Amino acid sequence: MTADGWAEGIFAILLFSQSVDAGRILSPEAGYVMLLLFGVAWIGLGIWWGRRATSYDGFAVAGRNVGLALGTATAVATWVTSNTTMLAPQFALQLGIWGALAYSTASFGLFAFAPLSGRIRRLMPHGYTAVEFVRRRYGRLGSIPFLIISLFYAMTWLISMAMAGGKLLNALSGIPYEVGMTVVLAVCVLYTLFGGMYAVIGTDFVQSIIILIGLVVVAIAVLLHVDIADVHQQLQDDRPMLLSILFPAALMALFNNMLFGFGEIFHSNVWWSRAFAMREGVGPKAYLLGGLLWLPVPIVAGFLGLAAPALGIGVSQPDTVGPLVAATLLGTGGALLVFVVVFCSLASSIDSLLAATSDLVVNDIAEPLAKRISGTPATDPVKRRWSLFAIIGLGVVTWCVAYPNIGTLATVLFFAGPMVGSCIWPIVGGLYFRRSSPIAACMAMVVGTSIGLVAYFMIGWFVASLVGAATSGLVFFIGMYLYPDDFDFRSLSHLPGPPLAARPEDGPIDPSERIGMVGDISSGGETR
Amino acid sequence: MMFPLWFLELIVVGGLTLCGVGAAALIVFWILDFKEKRIW
Amino acid sequence: MWMLGQFNTRRTRRTRRTRRGDRALTCPLLRRAVAAAVLLIGSSMMVWGSVAMAAEPESESPPALAFVETQLGVSREGYFTLEWSAVEGAALYRVRDRADQIAYQGVATKSFQSGLSDGVYRFYVEAIGDDGEILATSAEAVATVEHWRLAPSLALFAIGAIVVGGIGFVILRGRWIEKQIATGGDDRTSMLQTEVESGGES
After folding, report:
1. CA A451, A93, A234: angle at the middle one, nearest 5?
2. What CATH number does domain A25-406 carry, 3.40.190.10, 1.20.1730.10, 3.40.50.2000, 3.20.20.105?
3. Is position C139 within any domain?
4. pLDDT score, position C53
5. Which helix (H) or strand (E) holds A201?
6. What is the tally of structural domains in chain C?
7. A432 and C171 in contact by Cβ < 8 A?
8. How far B13 CA sits from the closest chain A CA (Å)?
9. Is the Cβ pair C36, A155 closer than 8 Å?
10. What is d(CA A211, CA A293) in angstroms, rounded to the nearest whole number?
11. Could you list the residue ranges that cross the membrane (chain B) (predicted)?
12. Distance from CA of A283 to the nearest CA of B (A)
């Protein structure tokens, strides 16, 4: 079919959607066509970029040579999840202007991670994961709670994104939840499987541009329909606290969200794997620019939520107010745009999580276990194969948990705030202080998480990360004072063990494992 | 005490501008990286 | 960034389980702390656990129009969700407040209210038919808004600022020392190296 033919076909479906399925923003047919188009596009691009992934280094960290354009874009796209486009409006509707500002402060996490990413890259030129750093920095005492927190966070994020995919596609086009969730997840699993980090970062670039342009178009459409002064007036009359500078819950939420963002970025392997993937010197610039580009996204998206009352749009569920406003103002075109933006937001996060979490599973669970059992480290091709199994396994587990569609969007994320908040100091201290000790890190994570969870139940979500970060910081410094370490940072730059693939005289653990590896080359890794 | 109208206008219009500039900047970075063969 | 996903659901859950919540408030702090510690230890099961916690049995819609909960309890953040039973034949629902102002109009059986100042709010809902006739009207639902006190909120705001400032200070200081080491540095370098040391390649 020619491009014109496609356009005519899509147009016909859209018209059909308006006449037949007036209750929905898009018809299921239009939704399926969009899913098919973008699904095929992402998988095709994944395979295209994945040709470069000829070694485990290529597959896991994109050859450690990613440039500024893709580095910046991947920071933006990964940090824009479906929640940014959907829940920033909700947050604005709940906590007002402070809410939109508080959400946007999550970009400060990217700013703060910029110098950390440079240091990580320098300290561990051969590193793969955040847990690997913690294991080598703090030993088992630090790495066990950190691994638990990392896996919990990654899995809940992954599951919530898959669930969000199913629900959103259902809300926008009537595609059954199970079908939408399965397709979104399957598409991401497939292209991550084929292309690893190359595919993830490559598609992130396209997705970030679509998200930013889509958001600008929707926001301009809103501004053409309603004056900012009207929005302000309406809020002042009907929802005055949304404009209040002294809104107590919002004041508490501001630094809580900033610290939540810090915790998410500092501890998560999604961000560490990108730090390892970027070329020397690129990481700090890319994260800084990424933060700057991400900063306005929640504010613009949040404005959609604030504009809803002035537009006379009844809000039943605050997490769908953004798409609702866009579709109401822009009709089918707006719905189509929202569909694409949301699909991109979902895919850019799910693929990153699949790639980064599979690295955790391979490097921090499978490899140490295998080493303990067999006594020798795994070869590059073996790790590459494990990555494929890990990605498929993660996809299957996510699908199984997300399939029943239990609970409302992201209910499964309850406890992540204090957990990630309590990881901030062990990471920052571990990167900059020689005296940071395993016991200080372990106690900081355990006590910070526990007290943060207590605050969550006693006061509310808007203080949990703040309390977690504050108490863990206190415990960390006390622990460091009482039990100081004297760590030699240079030890981190050494390879834990020479890769077997680079030592052909040793031979692989199991030569038969090398057979049939897609893209495998006999000479070993790209960068080792 | 309420956020004044000008502040709301500032963050909305400023945010919108930054989003547009951001999309353009990404494309410019890509072109520069492409020319210098430094994409990957 | 997904972090804010819990907000709406958290609020809804809290309002739905007001009675349980009230009882829980009487529990000693220690009990909650122990519960939190158990949650941490069993975090590998949290994914499933939290999913299971989220499960709420679907109640069958009663024939008459009624709020699912008529006493919504106290909201400390000024927002809450009103939810009511569906009425057969209703084309849309309209929620009105005590002053008969329309607080919501739409097809859903939920309405999200936010940005409210301290006070007691009463709502009722009308089911509207295809021709605009009122099919049914509910009894009142009552919600109380009582915001957190400003002083502790500002105190937490200040603690947050201190923690964020501390993180920023440590990172910037570390970066500065790294630079000093990388460029050969001044006389302080050797002293600073005891605190922060660059990687092997710097």
Report:
1. 145
2. 1.20.1730.10
3. yes
4. 38
5. helix A177-225
6. 3
7. yes
8. 8
9. no
10. 11
11. 6-32
12. 13
C-alpha distance from residue A196 to each of A58, A136, A264, A365 (Å):
8, 25, 22, 19
* One domain for residues C76 and C34: no
Range A181-209 average pLDDT: 93
| Residues of the domain holding C166 | 150-193
Residue C173 is assigned to a structural domain of this protein: yes
Cα separation, A136 vs A142, in Å, equals 9
Cβ within 8 Å of A, C 93-152: 104-112, 114-117, 147-150
Is C2 near chain A, with CB under 8 Å? Answer: yes
Best probe of the C interface among A156, A411, A485, by most C CBs < 10 A, is: A411
Mean pLDDT for the stretch of residues A439-461: 93
CA distance A403 to chain B (A): 35
Statement to judge: residues C156 and C106 lie in one domain: no
Q: What is the pLDDT of residue C108?
A: 87
> φ, ψ for residue A379 (rounded to 5)?
-80, 165
Q: Mean pLDDT across the stretch A30-58?
A: 90
What does the pLDDT look like over A362-389, one tens digit per residue?
Answer: 999 999 999 888 888 888 889 999 999 9
Determine the Cα angle at A337 with ends A194 and A83, to 5°: 70
Q: What's the CATH code of the domain at C81? A: 2.60.40.10
Q: In terms of domains, do C140 and C75 share one? A: yes
Kindly tell me if the per-residue pLDDT of C41 is higher than 80: no
C126 shares a domain with C76: yes
Average pLDDT in the C47-56 region?
39
Chains touching B, CB cut-off 8 Å, 3+ pairs: A
Question: Residues 23 to 52 of C: which have CB under 8 A from any A CB?
Answer: 29, 32-33, 35-37, 39-40, 43-44, 46-48, 50-52
Q: Which long-range contacts (CB under 8 A, 24 or more apart) does A2-9 make?
A: A9/A33
Q: pLDDT tier at C15 (50, 70, 90 boundaries)?
A: very low
Q: Provide the percentage of residues in chain C whose pLDDT is more than 70.
A: 60
Burial of A246 (0-12, 13-18, 19+ CB in 10 A): middle
Give the three-class secondary structure for A28. helix
Residues C107 and C128 in one domain: yes
Interface check for B10 against chain A (CB to CB < 8 A): the answer is no
